[in-house]
């Protein structure tokens, strides 16, 4: 797999114009202008740059990690360094919108270098892009215009600070719009929870708890073809519980069934559920149920 360490070599590979700044490029199709089109196809590649694009990909097969992009106009796409990209000749690149690319070192020494790591949309699969309303799209485009003004003008000692500030503002608006998107996705989040539970049921029924232990959230997300961060954020917004909490609830439900078998010790129940240490199982059970596994078993007997 080819990896590009600099912004210039990455843009050269895409057959796009070289940047005005060694670590920053801005393409914007204001008015009647058009974006330059990148090369027709590419095998899997990675680079050390962040990318933010609006309405750049319209149709075709653009692979981003394990998934394909959901081509919808008005989608804002965020790509982080070292994430795998691949597309073929069926992709049609829309020539309206904007594309901002900057090397990760462009942020070094700024507060944004740490803040950007907290924005979940940079870890999402590309088919989970941010879908903007016309009003939201206009707000983002105004910020990009301000970035482009600084980028195109003769840059001085204040230019980088202003551009960094505008990028920070863009990310804050994107974060707000993602919050709105999550709130409007009740049906999707319910579907995700159902699929999440189905994955757990399959794992339990195949006896993998005893064989491989408690499944990781990352493994479950991969099986669902979504990112771990996206799965957790969506379920948290709608249900108020994280993916780990949902996993624990399922384990406790399983534990209740097994605890009713008097021939099994608490340690045996813990091991059957994939817990390496029975003490951890007992603590988790008491935290969720308010009583210990032994007390639960005794209470059931009394009933």
Automatic annotation (TrEMBL):
Q: Does the keyword Nuclease apply?
A: no
What species is this protein from? Formosa agariphila (strain DSM 15362 / KCTC 12365 / LMG 23005 / KMM 3901 / M-2Alg 35-1)
Identify the Pfam families for this entry. Answer: HTH_18 (PF12833)
Q: Where is the HTH araC/xylS-type domain?
A: 198-299
- Can you tell me which residues the record assigns to a coiled coil? none
Q: Does the keyword Transcription regulation apply?
A: yes
Q: What is this protein called?
A: Transcriptional regulator, AraC family
Keywords of this protein's UniProt record, alphabetized? DNA-binding, Transcription, Transcription regulation
* Top-level taxonomic group: Bacteria
- Please give the InterPro entries that the UniProt record associates with this protein: Homeodomain-like_sf (IPR009057), HTH_AraC (IPR018060), Tscrpt_reg_AraC-type_HTH (IPR020449)
User: Which GO molecular function, any one, fits this protein according to its record?
Assistant: DNA-binding transcription factor activity
Question: Which SMART domains does the protein's record reference?
Answer: HTH_ARAC (SM00342)
């Amino acid at each position: 797999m080819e990896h590009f360490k600099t912004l210039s070599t990455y843009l050269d590979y895409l057959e796009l114009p070289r940047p005005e700044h060694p670590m920053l490029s801005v393409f914007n199709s204001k008015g009647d202008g058009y974006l330059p089109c990148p090369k027709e196809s590419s095998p899997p590649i990675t680079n050390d740059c962040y990318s933010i694009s609006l309405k750049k990909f319209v149709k075709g097969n653009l692979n981003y990690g394990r998934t394909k992009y959901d081509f919808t106009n008005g989608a804002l796409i965020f790509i982080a360094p070292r994430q795998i990209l691949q597309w073929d000749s069926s992709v049609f690149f829309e020539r309206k919108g904007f594309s901002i690319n900057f090397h990760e070192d462009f942020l070094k020494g700024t507060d944004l270098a740490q803040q950007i790591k907290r924005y979940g949309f940079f870890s999402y699969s590309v088919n989970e892009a941010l879908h903007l309303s016309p009003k939201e799209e206009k707000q983002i485009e105004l910020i990009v215009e301000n970035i482009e003004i600084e980028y195109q003008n003769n840059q001085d000692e204040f230019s980088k600070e202003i551009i960094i500030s505008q990028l920070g503002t863009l990310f804050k608006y994107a974060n707000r719009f993602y919050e709105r998107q999550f709130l409007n996705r009740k049906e999707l989040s319910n579907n995700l929870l159902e699929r999440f539970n189905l994955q757990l049921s399959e794992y339990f029924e195949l006896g993998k708890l005893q064989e491989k232990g408690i499944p990781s959230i990352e493994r479950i997300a991969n099986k669902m073809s979504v990112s771990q961060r996206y799965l957790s954020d969506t379920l948290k917004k709608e249900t108020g519980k994280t993916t780990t909490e949902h996993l624990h609830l399922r384990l406790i439900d399983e534990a209740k069934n097994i605890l009713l078998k008097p021939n099994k010790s608490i340690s045996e129940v813990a091991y059957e559920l994939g817990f390496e240490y029975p003490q951890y199982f007992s603590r988790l059970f008491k935290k969720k149920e308010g009583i210990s596994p032994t007390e639960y078993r005794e209470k059931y007997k009394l009933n």
